[in-house]
Amino acid sequence: MSVIPLPTARRPVALVVAVDAFLDRFRDDPGTRATYTETLRRLREIASDQLPVAALTPEI
Fold first, then answer.
1. pTM of the full predicted structure?
2. Please, what is the Cα angle at 22 between 5 and 50, to 5 degrees?
3. Half-sphere exposure of 51 toward its Cβ, with a 13 Å CA cutoff?
4. What one-character DSSP code corresponds to residue 10?
5. CB of 40 within 8 A of CB of 23?
């Protein structure tokens, strides 16, 4: 399994900003965008929109 490093920012990026940027990639694919929107809505409800993305950790 290879590891793909994620891009980093010089300053914290709020979850809401990262989600919006991610969803923007699918503006021409409404079905995919709707699926991701629903999943990410749940994450935002649990984590809070202002949580820095770097603070997210996987649950094992």
1. 0.75
2. 90
3. 13
4. S
5. yes
Q: How far apart are CA 7 and CA 20, in angstroms?
A: 16
Q: 57: which 2 tokens?
A: 């950790």
Q: Which residues are CB-contacts of 16 (< 8 A; sequence separation ≥ 6)?
A: 44, 49, 50
Closest CA to 50 of 24, 16, 18, 20: 16
Q: How far apart are the first and last CA of the chain?
A: 18
Which neighbouring-strand residues pair with 14?
52
pLDDT tens profile 6-55: 666 678 889 999 999 999 999 999 999 999 999 999 999 999 999 999 89
**CA within 13 Å, CB half, 6:** 5
Question: How many residues does this entry show for the chain?
Answer: 60
Neighbours of 41 (CB within 10 A): 11
